[in-house]
Amino acid sequence: MVTKIDTDYLVVGAGATAMAFVDTLLTESDANVVLVDRYHQPGGHWTVAYPYVRLHQPSAMYGVNSRPLGNDTIDQTGWNAGHYELASASEICSYFDQVMRETFLPSGRVSYFPMAEYDGAGRFHLTTSGEEYQVAVRRKIVDTTYQGVTVPAMQPPEFPIATDVRVVPPNELPALREAYDQYVIIGAGKTGIDACLWLLEQGVAPAQLTWIMPRAPWLIDRATVQPLPLRRAEDIARDYAVKHEAIMRAESIPDLFNRLSAVGALLRISPDEQPTAFRCATVSQAELEQLRKIEHVVRLGRVKRITETDIELDGGTIPIGQHTLHVDCTADAAKQLPIVPIFQDGLITLQSVRACQPVFSAALIAHVETAYPNDFVKNELCPVTPNPKTDTDWLRFAISGNSEQLRWSGNDDIGAWLGTSRLQPNIAPPMPDDPAERASFEQQALAMARQQNAKLEELLHAHDAL
Hints:
The protein is an alpha/beta fold. Helix content is 33%, strand content 19%.
């Protein structure tokens, strides 16, 4: 027997972006929502992430608009000391559970179905009882799974492994009850960085670590993404000015990255290496110092297979000892997928409007859904920004940020919403109070954004022509 229910919005998934979307929808409309998710609690990939994972951005800028995450405190100890707190996986899961139980469900407008598989066309079934449901949707279906995050615990390694070789996802590290002679970390993204730092924090000597780094990453200094008032207005203005000069003076993309690195706008793990990847990962200076202690870094491409005695890579082979633990950090958490319109034909497909800020993007999309009349206007306000992957994607990342500023300039509604959104990073210098000074300041900022975009497009065009 199929149970029939009706709703305004059917939201598929209850991860971070779904929660941010529904939170804004409830706040800014009278809509009813059916929320269908395969996991036992809200939070999506956070419910299966490795237990020592933390946000790479301040907790103050993550979650949903209606509820703060964390205590708005500054870490006093550890390698994040001096910066805003970074929520752990357990904190984030608890936070989303509280949002569901203390905000969504008491509203009387959300029906939540965990442990459910969506079958398409408004149908889903519960994986525990097998009970089936058919949903009549009055307004739209919201697909929050298209750009879903993949973590190593969700999939096995993509390379063959000999029977007696131990390869584990990062989730299993805290369960270790024996010491290994060598630890091989496979992957140089955020997960690989976290695994290296966790092992070092547990007292593993840098000499015991082998880091397989197919592509060295450009990293963001976490100090530069701290909200006011921790980061002073004059520091923000100075950093923006030196970054602007680096862009405008660059003669090529390699020259641009050297200039950005020289002024601290981007960081690299090895001072002597030119990175070729960019995935928005942030590190503190203390974390960077720890990562630089790892001397055995393998730059021979991706792993092809692991035998009892060797690791075969694209560019060569390295030997391994008998008592070695391999940590697979190769899952592509934020894939580059084909762009589809966010708003189309009764469907909202959540994607990033602001690069590397999925929850902010989801909340903004919900606001635009409630405030604007048709899909054309909504898509004009919310063009998709692809996830960055390569070094040249940093240029597109910067262009997108400037274009966002230009696109929303003069839109009083968007401006007011940004001003009240806790997910909007408060990392811009305060605007002058005097109306004339404020207008002049805004025009200067827009002019600099146009100049930067023209220069970055020029560099990309020259690079593509080579």
